[in-house]
UniProtKB/TrEMBL annotation, chain A:
GO terms for biological process: transmembrane transport. Keywords: Cell membrane, Membrane, Transmembrane, Transmembrane helix, Transport. It is found in: Cell membrane. It comes from Stappia sediminis. This is ABC transporter permease subunit.
From TrEMBL, chain B:
Part of the ABC transporter complex MalEFGK involved in maltose/maltodextrin import. Probably responsible for the translocation of the substrate across the membrane. It comes from Stappia sediminis. InterPro entries: BP-dep_ABC_trans_perm (IPR050901), MetI-like (IPR000515), MetI-like_sf (IPR035906). Keywords: Cell membrane, Membrane, Sugar transport, Transmembrane, Transmembrane helix, Transport. Belongs to the binding-protein-dependent transport system permease family. MalFG subfamily. This is Maltose/maltodextrin transport system permease protein MalG. Gene3D superfamilies: MetI-like. It is a multi-pass membrane protein. One of its GO terms (biological process) is transmembrane transport. GO terms for cellular component: plasma membrane. Its main location: membrane. The lineage of its organism: Bacteria, Pseudomonadati, Pseudomonadota, Alphaproteobacteria, Hyphomicrobiales. Residues 98-292 form the ABC transmembrane type-1 domain. The chain crosses the membrane at residues 25-46, 103-126, 138-159, 171-189, 209-239, 269-292. It is found in: Cell membrane.
Length: 368, 306
């Protein structure tokens, strides 16, 4: 199989008349002109240069949609069969570009401004004031530090998930029942979990978990009073919902390992313990790394439980970056500062994940 | 009858047997313990929705034995037997949120599965060049969206949607949700399509179908289980989504998680009512989880094992 050619190779006869080519070009540039005109008209109307009233910027959206449709149609007109293939990827690509790249560029713009949505002055460019404010904001650094703790907790989650997956993969009765039962927490919305577990089961007076803690000898259980304990509780609730996720990925990996390998090791006299560490675990490394990586990505979005259970307290001990920015916006409705914090966070994530992937790559495929 | 057993287990065999037995006990002990850990909160929530204040305070756990089930919690939602036929503003509010959630989740999952499947099929079959981007770059471009934390997009979208008058509309939510689940669909479906042999389409093309014809009539039916898996995974994620909904919706398009969250904030906890609301919010997905467990596992396993 060649790397360059199409996997599905088709020979096509497209006779491209000049007329058709011209029509295709017209379609693209014409619709682009329409879109540009819409934008210009909207901008001018906003500035008050022309006497047109627009209720909102929605015409710009329609302009973009029109251009997208024309661009897709023009692919077929211009390139025939080749264009029909482009049509598979183009809609998704246009969608993602419009929904991610454009807002990100826009975000860079508002990150360096002071923009209180409720104030009448509107957006004001303020240079690097936000950066300075961020640098001196202990709560943001605290939230970043918490994220590091939360991410480290993944190792414990991984260990539990691996253990459960091993149990599920072993020779047990009623496997389907256990699998469904173990999967259940993943189905629940974090908001519901934060009420079910965080607010009711951990309620200090009547909650069943508080009762259990008292029975176990913890005199006056308080789950969210002490910073360390509160953070551990948030970690546990988040782990509870997401352990099934890692467990199932690892289980799929375990089931893909041929049984003969373990049997051969058994015949050679290896104990179950050594069999695990020297055969199963190394073979599971690629799957484990995928599972951990995806888990990290999901962990970095952690917010719902924190917002609803502790809203960052006590004293910011449980804050994640997302929940911190959420509150920052809720309390002061300042979009500019929040956006800057978010963008710094994104840059940190991208750097961290790239380094992580490079390290993993170096470690998995050592070059001598 | 011989009073003495002729063949009997030796000392070491008996030891082996007890060891095997204790191993079994340990395995099932852990399994049952974890089942309790997983299911107890759900059980607690469902039973609490039938409790009254004294039952909650005395920590009664088992309905009918410890306490007599009452419809109190469900009555506060307007869903108990005696209120279900009567007018109820609470129920209307709840049903509205429920419908909003359903619409957002179904529409965005459908859109994501359509867009994602097409893109994944294209990437698994053809070679593209968009400017400097080749196939691996395009794949990476799509998958890298997974890293993007929602908070980065949230505030810009708040401003943009305000300009576009899309704040507090289901359309706005659907577009954002589609964006968040699209990489997952592409990831799962790319795997699905690359496991389908190209010869199938080649045969279809020889028989005179176009590329799109082959895709729609030959490939899609084969990849359907994968699509269902991706769809359900999207459904779970979008149904439970809270962050964007909390920021971008206020009255009209508010979804169920936002409603649940807004109730937890109010003090003087009305346990039975909250429990009933939580139960109603999680029940659809619990049912989906039990009935379609096979697909969910398939979907999540797709990316893990290459």
């Amino acid at each position: 199989m060649s790397k360059d050619g199409d996997l599905l190779h088709v020979v096509t006869f497209d006779d491209m008349t000049p007329m058709r080519l011209r029509f295709g070009k017209l379609l693209i540039w014409g619709s682009a002109a329409v879109m540009a005109l819409t934008f210009a008209a909207l901008a001018l109307a906003e500035g008050g240069y022309i006497a047109l009233e627009f209720a909102n910027w929605r015409p710009a959206l329609y302009g973009f949609l029109f251009w997208s449709v024309c661009l897709c149609a023009a692919q077929v007109v211009l390139y025939g069969e080749q264009g029909k293939r482009t049509l598979f990827v183009l809609p998704a690509a246009l969608f993602v570009v419009a929904m991610v790249v454009f807002p990100l560029v826009f975000a860079l713009g508002i990150a360096f401004s002071d923009w209180n949505l409720s104030s009448p002055t509107g957006r004001q460019f303020n240079g690097f004031d936000n950066v300075r404010q961020m640098w001196n904001d202990p709560f943001y650094w605290n939230a970043l530090k918490n994220m590091a703790y939360y991410t480290l907790a993944i190792l414990a989650e991984y260990a539990v998930a691996f253990g459960l997956a091993l149990l599920l993969a072993s020779d047990i009765k009623a496997r389907k029942f256990f699998r469904v039962a173990f999967l259940m927490p993943l189905m629940l919305s974090p908001v519901a979990v934060s009420w079910m577990v965080g607010k009711s089961m951990m309620e200090i007076r009547f909650g069943p978990l508080a009762r259990l803690a008292r029975w176990l000898g913890w005199e006056r259980p308080s789950f969210f009073g002490d910073p360390e304990v509160a953070r551990a509780m948030i970690m546990m609730m988040d782990a509870w919902t997401f352990i099934p996720f890692m467990m199932i990925m690892i289980l799929a990996g375990l089931q893909a390992i041929p049984r003969e390998l373990q049997e051969a090791a058994r015949v050679d006299g290896a104990s179950a313990w050594r069999g695990f560490w020297e055969i199963t675990f190394p073979l599971m490394l690629p799957v484990s790394i995928t599972a951990i990586l995806i888990r990290i990505i999901f962990k970095l979005k952690l917010a719902d439980i924190i917002i609803n259970v502790t809203s960052g307290g006590p004293g910011g001990a449980t804050d994640s970056v997302t929940s911190f920015i959420f509150r920052e916006y809720r309390d002061r409705s300042n979009v500019g500062y929040g956006t800057l914090l978010a963008i710094v966070y994104l840059v940190l994530i991208v750097v961290a994940i790239t380094v992580f992937m490079k390290l993993v790559d170096r470690w998995m495929n050592p070059r001598y | 009858m011989p009073d003495k057993q002729i063949f009997h287990d030796g000392e070491s065999d008996l030891l082996q047997k007890t060891r095997w037995f204790s191993g079994r006990v340990a395995v099932y002990g852990i399994l049952i313990f974890w089942t309790v850990v997983c299911l107890f909160p759900i059980y607690w929530t469902i039973t609490t929705s039938f409790k009254m204040a004294p039952n909650v305070m005395q920590g009664h756990l088992v309905p009918l034995v410890d306490f007599a089930p009452k419809w109190l919690g469900w009555k506060s939602l307007g869903l108990s037997p005696d209120t279900i036929w009567a007018e109820s503003t609470v129920r209307e509010e709840f049903l509205k949120r429920f419908t909003n959630s359903t619409i957002s989740a179904l529409a965005s999952s459908t859109l994501a599965v359509i867009l994602g499947s097409m893109a994944a099929y294209g990437l698994s079959r053809f070679r593209y060049r968009f400017g400097f981007m080749r196939n691996p770059d395009i794949s990476f471009f799509f998958l890298s969206q997974l890293i993007l934390p929602p908070v980065v997009l949230a505030l810009p979208f708040l401003v943009l949607y305000k300009q576009l008058d899309l704040l507090d509309t289901s359309v706005g939510l659907v577009m954002l949700y589609t964006l968040t689940v699209l990489p997952i669909v592409i990831w799962i479906m790319r795997d699905q399509f690359s496991s389908i042999p190209v010869e199938l389409e080649e045969a279809a093309l020889v028989d005179g179908l176009s590329i799109w014809g082959a895709f729609l009539t030959i490939v899609l039916p084969i990849a359907l289980p994968g699509m269902v898996a991706a769809f359900i995974l999207c459904l779970v994620l979008t149904w439970n989504e809270y962050f964007f909904a909390a920021l971008l919706t206020s009255t009209d398009a508010k979804t169920l998680p936002v409603m649940v969250a807004s109730q937890t904030g109010s003090q003087g906890i009305n346990w039975w009512a909250m429990a009933a609301l939580s139960t109603a919010a999680i029940l659809p997905l619990i049912i989906i989880g039990i009935v379609l467990e096979r697909y969910i596992i398939k979907g999540m396993a797709a990316g893990a094992v290459k």
